[in-house]
Amino acid sequence: MREHDACQWLHGQLAQLPDIVSAGQVLKRDPAHSVRVIESCEGSGPALLCKFFPTLGVGDRLRQRLRLDRPARIHRRLKALPESGLPIPPSLGHITFSGFGSIWLCPLVAGKNLLYWADDGLPGTEQEQLQLLNPVVDAMLDLHRAGFVHGDFKWGNVLYSPQSSTCWLVDVDGVCATGEGFTAGKLRDLARFLLDCSEAGVAEPAISRLLSRYAEGAGQGRETVAGLTAPLMARLRQRHIQRYGEGYRLTRDNLDL
Hints:
The chain is an alpha+beta fold. It folds into 2 domains: 3-107, 2-Layer Sandwich (Phosphorylase Kinase, domain 1); 112-254, Transferase(Phosphotransferase), domain 1, CATH 1.10.510. Strand 4 and strand 5 (101-107) form a beta hairpin. The protein starts with a helix and ends in a 13-residue tail after the last helix. Helices cover 44% and strands 17% of the residues. The protein has a 5-stranded antiparallel β-sheet with strand order 1-2-3-5-4, with helices on both faces. Helix 6 (184-199) packs antiparallel against helix 7 (204-218). The chain has 8 helices and 10 strands. The model has no long low-confidence stretch (mean pLDDT 81).
């Protein structure tokens, strides 16, 4: 579905409802927003993934009028990405409903959240774990080579399709441009992903090989990347221990972390 068609269709559908926040199937909800799936065009086209941001006050209304609200910012950021070749769903636009809130929408993409793999039991051997996770490192490299970082590269923001061995990066509010070389943004993406690997129970040799795969693909020395990544991983791990306690393990219950 094209950008204009998707926005126009969704606006027409939601305008018929007494309360737009009741639309669709809820995938995730918190005080700031909810994520919903809405079947498009009476089931004839792909489903839409919609992020609803309620209007909570005068500041939100002003940002909506100036197109500085989160859906508008997400749309602008993603429109700056190359049109193809990156593992991020394309933005189909944003809609504002006066008095209710604003919505960002994209196509619903196929894949299983990595946290569900952690919960259902990771593959047992190192090689099987790498078959699952190498495509995720490749997706990170594709994004970084294009000059962008994700900003929150945790397992909960990765969808993996075993049928095609491909993945999608979701929850893209923080996607932004970055410079050449191993920038702070790229470092944070890598460190957060590797920490989640560790906390989900991935074998240490496999994590080491994932780091090596990234370093080689990024054209960086392995020891340099390891030396820069380790302190940030340690800080993130300590923050998790303080927040969740010793023995913390990553599962699908942590989907919103």
